[in-house]
What we know:
The protein is built from 13 helices and 14 strands. It has helices spanning 42-52, 62-69, 77-91, 99-118, 157-165, 169-172, 183-188, 194-201, 252-255, 287-297, 327-344, 346-352, 358-381, and strands at residues 15-16, 19-20, 37-38, 134-136, 149-152, 181-182, 213-215, 223-226, 232-237, 262-264, 271-274, 300-303, 309-313, 385-386. The strands form 5 sheets. The protein has a 4-stranded antiparallel sheet, with no helix packed on it. A 3-stranded antiparallel sheet has the order 4-5-6. The protein is globular.
Amino acid sequence: MPKRTSIKVDDVPYQYKNRKLQIGKSYTSPDFSSHTVLTDDIFTYIDFYFSSHKKAMKYRNPTVSKIKYGDEKKYHYSFYWKQAMSFYKAAKTLPMESVPLVSYYSMLNAVKAFIAFKCYYIEDFVEHFSRHGLFENTAISGNELSTIHVGHQNKGVFVLFGRMLEQNFDTIWAGGKPNTVTLKKLLYNLAFIHRAYITTYNTPRGARVPELFIPVKTAQAPCYYKGNDSNLYLKFEVDHSLFGVAPVSIPVVYVNSISSKFKISDDNNFVLQSVNGAKRNQDSLSSEFKNENDELRREFQYIRSSKKLWYLKRTALNHPEVMNLNSMLIIMAAMHRVSEIVRYKPEQMAHLLNSKENWLLHEFLTLALDQFIDELAAEITGQDIMCTGVK
């Protein structure tokens, strides 16, 4: 349970290279020195980024691997990115019944581009590229999101992607048939469709579904501030409106479900700041700061928008549907499962699109691909990428 803290921090965000130091979109490697990139064509921008950050595709053991896998150039990240763009464009032209298939293949190829760009040797990923790494649990099936399960294997694009994003990926979500999860559980853990989820499952006479995401106040990311011990602390104010008409503080039930990485500020009942501070260097960011930021970033999700919309996840909420995993992995797993339904059980897809869960599924299929590509582009570049007109 977050408690009050005696550490005092500045009222003005810490300035690093003449800009506010704040949480970035990138999950694993944010570039704090980069300006926000403004573009309405994220695929073209990443293509440009690739061309200006060229990396040779090479084998660790070319004598053996070239014979086994062929010309190394065929695994170039730009090839996969262009494939992702082609499927993306197709997704924008198809009816809802067909969208999941091309949306998933856009995601799959975009992830292959990310992996090929980030891995030093082709041998590090080529065996994974021959399989998706996700599967349906055929022993459990039904026509509701709570009865449709997906799991992951120990090898495949999804699995390698998961291990690159989450150091303890196999602990958070173990592989194999005993550890499949439902589409309903996956969708509960996505901020960009959370309002649709709550609306779908909250009924006048039924149990209320707990809000999983607390909106951060104002259209900015949580920022770092210098403390009176000279360390840097993350501080942000949550949106009061979530808690009623005139709340005086964050309700205890919410406080108890917030990560112990945060404490309530002495100065404001709606302000949270990180418990641990990070060493501040004069002209650079310390490794201690980067490690602390990696930990804190995992407590948040953002919604792709024309302005910055950040949400604190109630990661300590004691609820069976909570899954503290990177949102891109959740999106990809869910889209893969729905794409399988489209391919092999179109009548089941028709049923879902005419069920009480129609709106939730519709919102996911409409928004997920753009959200995923936005998050992955940030992961590739380390930059915050926004629509034009937004700084």
